[in-house]
Amino acid sequence: MRTVTWIKMAVTGVVFCVGGPALIYYVTPSEEELFSRYNPELQKRSLERRKEKQEDFDNFVTKLKEYSKSDKPVWTVWEQEAAKQRQLGIQQELDRRKLAAAEAEATRQQMQSTLR
């Protein structure tokens, strides 16, 4: 009696452990099938952005490889790099504003000299 129960449990376990993933694999559509179900406008947009997305992913992987060469954790190096980029962006913005202010001052001086 106990062996029959164990055999039923084993068979049921195998059916669930093998049949479940097999069913999911059978039911899940491939990328090509999903893409073919898009409407034509989405297909066109997806094809246009594919190269951009691939370049973004390549840049991400390249940076990740570069950051992994450090002996620090990757997320620490990533945060430090992001802080550097923010600081660089702030500095560039300040430089741009100084240049715009200098140009405005030069224009103002030129206008004053032409009025005199």
From TrEMBL:
Its main location: mitochondrion. Keywords: Chaperone, Membrane, Mitochondrion, Mitochondrion inner membrane, Transmembrane, Transmembrane helix. Pfam families: CBP4. The chain crosses the membrane at residues 6-27. It is a single-pass membrane protein. The keyword Transmembrane applies. It is found in: Mitochondrion inner membrane. InterPro entries: Cbp4 (IPR012420). The keyword Calcium does not apply. PANTHER family: ASSEMBLY FACTOR CBP4. Essential for the assembly of ubiquinol-cytochrome c reductase. It has a direct effect on the correct occurrence of the Rieske protein, core 4, core 5 and apocytochrome b. Belongs to the CBP4 family. This is Cytochrome b mRNA-processing protein 4. It comes from Baudoinia panamericana (strain UAMH 10762) (Angels' share fungus).
